[in-house]
Amino acid sequence: MRITLLFGWCFLVLFWFYTHNRVQGQCPAYSPKFVVQHGYRLYGHVITWLYAEKEVLCRLKCNLEKRCLTFNYEEATRVCELNDADDEKDLQETQGFVYGDMKKKRKSEVASTSTTPPTSRPGSSSLLAGHSCKKIKDLGDSRGDGEYWIDPGNTGQPFTVYCDMTTDGGGWTLIKRSNLTFIYRYSSEFDRNDYRAISNYSDARQNILTTAIQDLRITMGFDQLRYRCRKKRINRTLHIMTINDTAGYEVLDHLLVQPTWPTACNSFERLQDDTSILARNCIKWGDYFGNREVNRWGKSSNKGRHRVYNYVIVLEPNHRLAFMSGGPHYCDDSLPFASIGDFWELYVR
Ligand SMILES: *[C@@H]1O[C@H](CO)[C@@H](O)[C@H](O)[C@H]1NC(C)=O
Ligand SMILES: *[C@@H]1O[C@H](CO)[C@@H](O)[C@H](O)[C@H]1NC(C)=O
Ligand SMILES: *[C@@H]1O[C@H](CO)[C@@H](O)[C@H](O)[C@H]1NC(C)=O
Ligand SMILES: *[C@@H]1O[C@H](CO)[C@@H](O)[C@H](O)[C@H]1NC(C)=O
Fold first, then answer.
1. I want to staple 122 with a disulfide (CB 3.0 to 4.6 A). Which of 50, 127, 137, 211 is the partner?
2. pLDDT value for 126
């Protein structure tokens, strides 16, 4: 009697699971009408793309995405493109691609009441994430500036980051953006020693420590830092990036590994919109054990794990770059004021 009851229960639970999953369409493998064509790619209908370890995961993703009718999968790059069309006329022979048609009902035929999972984004599961903004850009799969899922350490725990895909060719991962509403008081509870905190890039309160950024450098790989800031009342933009060469790497080592206050001139480039006094006067940078205008990054008294934000550049007494949460915020000035809309950004590539 009890056993029958148990069986009944199990059956009900299984039945519920089965129907429930079927309604959501989560069993693509059982779709009898699914068609796959090797060596083909559908052009002009990609709604989103992501990385998928295997073609079957790309298919699963398409099935979960309401708008997805077909997909292209490139085995070499593991890029999975989801299409919102199945027009045969846009199908072209393309080496290395697999084209899959889910034979789903078209948009207009899908009942508006059907339950759907949230809109798919690149890397919306642990198996489906990019490596870095740079890699995504290099693969030609940028969708413009915005958030992307990455898992640089292949940990199976992807997270979102903001990618700048336009400045100087793009591929920049945002570490921190301080877009001030007020100056946050320093509190060590906002120190982050895990690079995943860059997910919270717009939280001006947090300071991602140099050690965490260096960890990201080792795991994800990057060669350059880029600083951009602007204070309205100063009306100048500071916008510079370190050069991808040994002089630039010395700056990265100084800011992220061990302070050495390296040579300023020839270590960075100005971006087009830079109008700062700092960037045009590298020879006068530095405050090195009491000596000023020594052509060096940073300030010798500032060597803690915030030095990537705090007194990054000084040209005493009137020009500085600093934006540590809780500390003074300078952008090509030395005034202890900031107003709403003033911003500071740090990117890596
Ligand atoms: C983002 O910020 C929130 C709130 O401060 C915090 O709880 C969360 O752990 C942060 N996320 C990461 C990945 O650090
Ligand atoms: C800000 O600077 C620009 C030149 O860089 C100038 O054209 C503009 O008038 C300035 N705005 C204010 C409010 O001073
Ligand atoms: C900063 O925030 C303001 C207001 O929220 C917004 O208009 C502006 O675009 C932001 N600036 C940046 C660089 O994010
Ligand atoms: C920096 O230079 C190296 C070697 O030339 C190159 O492989 C790498 O892609 C460059 N990095 C960036 C961010 O451009």
1. 50
2. 47
Smallest Cα–Cα separation from 322: which of 338, 337, 310? 310
230 CB-near residues (< 8 Å, 6+ apart): 236, 237, 238, 331, 342, 343
Looking at the DSSP bridge assignments, the partners of residue 149 are: 160
The candidate with the shortest Cα–Cα distance to 100, out of 38, 26, 24, is 38
Helix, strand, coil in percent for the chain, rounding step 5: 25, 30, 45
Tokens 């005034």 label which residue?
Answer: 335
Residue 196 CB–ligand 1 contact under 6 Å: yes
Pull the structure tokens for residue 249: 């790497």
Whole-number Å distance between alpha carbons of 148 and 133: 8
Q: How far apart are CA 72 and CA 80, in angstroms?
A: 6
How far apart (Å, rounded) are the C-alpha atoms in residues 101 and 68?
9
Nearest ligand 2 atom to alpha carbon 275: 5
Cβ 157 under 6 angstroms from ligand 3: no
Alpha-carbon torsion 226, 227, 228, 234, what sign?
A: negative
Q: Is 169 in the pocket of ligand 4 (CB under 6 A)?
A: no
Ligand nearest to the CA of 233: 2
Residues 215-251: tens digit of each pLDDT: 999 999 999 999 999 999 999 999 999 999 999 999 9
**pLDDT tens-digit series, residues 127-162:** 568 999 999 999 887 889 999 999 999 888 899 999
Share of the chain above pLDDT 90, in %: 54
Q: Which atom of ligand 3 approaches the CA of 202 most closely?
A: 14
Global pTM reads: 0.70
The finding on whether 339 has its CB within 6 A of some atom of ligand 3 is no
